[in-house]
Amino acid sequence: MSFTIIGTGAGLPKTIQTNQDLAQFLDTSNDWIVTRTGIEARHICVTESILDIALEASVNALENAKIKAQELDLIICPTLGGDTVTPSLACLIQDQLGATCPSFDLNAACSGFVYGLDVADAYFSRNNDMKILVIAVDAMSKLIDWQDRATAVLFGDGAGAAVLAGGNSLKAIQLTAVGNQHALSIPWPKGNHPLTKNRSKPEPYLLMDGPEVYRFAVAAICNDLRAVTKAAGIELADVDYIIPHQANLRIIEGAAKRLKIPLDKFVMRVNGCGNTSAASIPLVLDELNRNGQFKSGTRIALTAFGGGLTTGACVIEWA
Amino acid sequence: MVLDKVVEILRNYKDEQDLEVTADSTFEELELDSLDTVELVMEIEEAFDTSIEMDGEIKTIGDVVALIEKAIA
Q1: Which homologous superfamily does the CATH classification assign to the domain defined by A173-317?
Q2: Which residues of B touch A210 (CB under 8 A)?
Q3: Threshold 0.90, pTM exceeds
Q4: How large is the ipTM?
Q5: B4: distance to nearest CA of chain A, Å?
Q6: What CATH number has the domain spanning B2-72?
Q7: CB contact under 8 A, A214 and B54
Q8: Secondary structure of chain B as H, E, C letters
């Protein structure tokens, strides 16, 4: 026994910035961004805190699951970090929801939601009679250099959540990690100890080797999708929807070509949200769920890749 | 040999069979951005069943040919 997804939710900040908006302060253009990334607009936390959008997604997911926060047995929050280092975002979500269960954050960057599902799966193997909230949230707008046109155009803020209960929907799941600081990192220079005050500190903004990340991402999608479909005993062609981490349309085009499967098998929503890191997969999951696209037996493959470098993929059969 | 194959892959990638290419052609002249370059390198790697390090500066078609020749030597 593992879990089934009984509810999903989304939370997006209300401020939308289009590529034209970015071109007001960056040397870039709508055409340049769209042809290279497929991104047209992104949501940015201006008045909202990270907790605010996480709560919106959590409340939506609990309503969709038709359960109360007090029924939750665990809250897992995949995130690069919330508004505070401590308390963890998961604890603040627990407090605001009125839940009383253990709660913790989990950092696996853009692969966080799939990492969260894997951790949840382990809890269900111990006790099948549980309700677990996996709430993935990131505010990349606070972690990127808005003067760097190469990275600033790629990201957006958002939160996506799923409520899990005991069941048999998870058919296969696989995580990987290969530690690598060069390809993608966000330095975190902290502290004011007198002995360190004159030492140079890196800027606290995202650094990325785009071509290296592209190569890693395409290989990750191909290898992980082949592995999890094989473990689930199905062919890739048997999957109804592949929901990849929404980073860049060209990564998905590259992977689809190598896997020899049609591009429209991949659900792409990068155009409206950019790369929302851990939130990107559950945001798409919630949209399809609310549109009624999942029926009993619908096969969904999730495939994620990100900083770490981490990857994660799974096959879920909708209950 | 390697150059001929690389040129063939490049012409297919750009879907321009008459494209003028020499070892000295730069990716910039060929209107290929950094992601085009990495996509092309991945296709070339598959064709030669090898992999090359992209740490160094790859500016010209000749740079790729040299790395492939070294990898398959």
Answers
A1: Thiolase/Chalcone synthase (3.40.47.10)
A2: 34-35
A3: yes
A4: 0.79
A5: 23
A6: 1.10.1200.10
A7: no
A8: CHHHHHHHHHHHHHCCCCCCCCCCCECCCCCCCHHHHHHHHHHHHHHHCCCCCCCCCCCEHHHHHHHHHHHHC
